[in-house]
Structure formats: structure tokens, C-alpha cells
């Protein structure tokens, strides 16, 4: 079947992995190119707009990167970014074991977020 559809072979090769990585970097980092690509899109975060939710998540991740770097530097090793709040709890022990600490201090909270509570 392929010979019937492409008698002379494939006309174009797939893009290289390097090009794929470059495109992914452009789409993940706020830049003028990313803004031009997304111009005219509805990016407001709402319950029924998953693209807006992803845009909001990107902003949250970018805001959390300095906290992750400080925790990694303080512990002297590269830490996983996916459970940053749990790492903060282990590092400072501030959620419920340290009542004297301000709940607004970074990265402290009185209780962990509801989606991390297991019950």
C-alpha cells in the first residue's frame, strides 16, 4: 500500500530532535516569539478553558523556580521539582510542627493543600 501511495518514497524527512527541543523551549519560556504564536488566543484561566489553565500553571511554575533553587542549594543536592511543597515541609518542618512560624512566610502554610492530604 505504501508503494502505491508513495511510489518514489517519502518526500520529506521528519524534523530532527534538536529542532523539536528548540520548539518546545520556545513554547515553554515566555518570550516575544511565544507571544506572537499565541496572539489572539483566549488565555484567561477558567473552569472551561484548559489552555488558560495551562497558561496559569506555567506562571505558577516560573514563580516557584526560585524557591526550588533555594531548597536545592540549601540541601546540597538536586531535588525533584514535582513535589516542591513536600520538600519545603521536610526542610523547614513548618506546617504543624512549628506553630511559632508565620503562615505567610515562604514556603510555610499551617496545613498542606487539600489535594495532598490522604485519608
TrEMBL record:
One of its GO terms (molecular function) is acyl-CoA dehydrogenase activity. Residues 92-119 are annotated as: Disordered. Residues 1-89 form the Acyl-CoA dehydrogenase C-terminal bacterial-type domain. One of its GO terms (biological process) is fatty acid beta-oxidation using acyl-CoA dehydrogenase. Pfam families: ACDH_C. It comes from the Bacteria. This is Acyl-CoA dehydrogenase.
